[in-house]
Amino acid sequence: MDAKEKQRKSFTTEFKVKIALEAIKGQRTVNEIASQYSVHPNQVTQWKMQAIESLPEVFSTKRERDAEDEEALKAQLYQQMGQLKVELDWMKKKLDCSSDQKRQLIEPGNESISVRRQCELIGLPRASLYYEPQPESPENLSLMRLIDEQFTKYSPSQKLDH
């Protein structure tokens, strides 16, 4: 046998359907069909069985197929959501840094993720993002100085020295 004879024959879908339909009709034997189209009788039988097995799918309603597709999509999406949740929890544990460092990670101009969501993702209270420490008022400083003077004047260590 030369190389051409050893190669497998490739048949189109239309050709397979044509032969399978003839075999299903039963007007001629499998051997007659096989010899007419130059294929092996086992191949004719196999194509016939494949066609018969797939017929219920052809006649199923579109609604049933759509429902099955929708369920498969939902299952896939729930799996992705679960995976993202696990990854987010892992990231939050690994992102153990100070609030100042977390504030540096926030991108206020990012249009795809809001500032609120960014804060949620890295575990930063949003209020702390905007917090700016205020200096003490002069009145408070004066009062603290007076308290400090009184404390140092009457502290227990001062009483022991006298």
The helix/strand series, from N terminus to C terminus, equals: HHHHHHHHHH
From the alpha-carbon coordinates, what is the Rg to the nearest angstrom?
40 Å
Number of strands: 0
Q: In one word, what is the shape?
A: rod-shaped
Helicity range of the residues? over 70%
Largest sheet composition: none
Low-confidence stretches: none
Overall mean confidence score, pLDDT? 85
- In whole angstroms, how far apart are the ends? 121 Å
Strand content: under 5%
Total helical segments? 10
Please identify the oligomeric state: single chain
- Class by helix and strand content? mainly alpha
How would you describe what is shown here?
With 162 residues, this protein is mainly α. Helices cover 73% and strands 0% of the residues. It has ten helices and no strands. It has helices at 3-6, 13-25, 30-37, 41-59, 62-94, 99-105, 115-122, 126-130, 138-153, 156-161. It is rod-shaped, with a radius of gyration of 40 Å.
Question: How is this structure best summarized?
Answer:
This protein has helices at 3-6, 13-25, 30-37, 41-59, 62-94, 99-105, 115-122, 126-130, 138-153, 156-161.
Entry keywords:
mainly alpha; 162 residues; 73% helix
Topology:
Layout: H1 3-6, H2 13-25, H3 30-37, H4 41-59, H5 62-94, H6 99-105, H7 115-122, H8 126-130, H9 138-153, H10 156-161
Helix pairs in contact: 2-4, 3-4
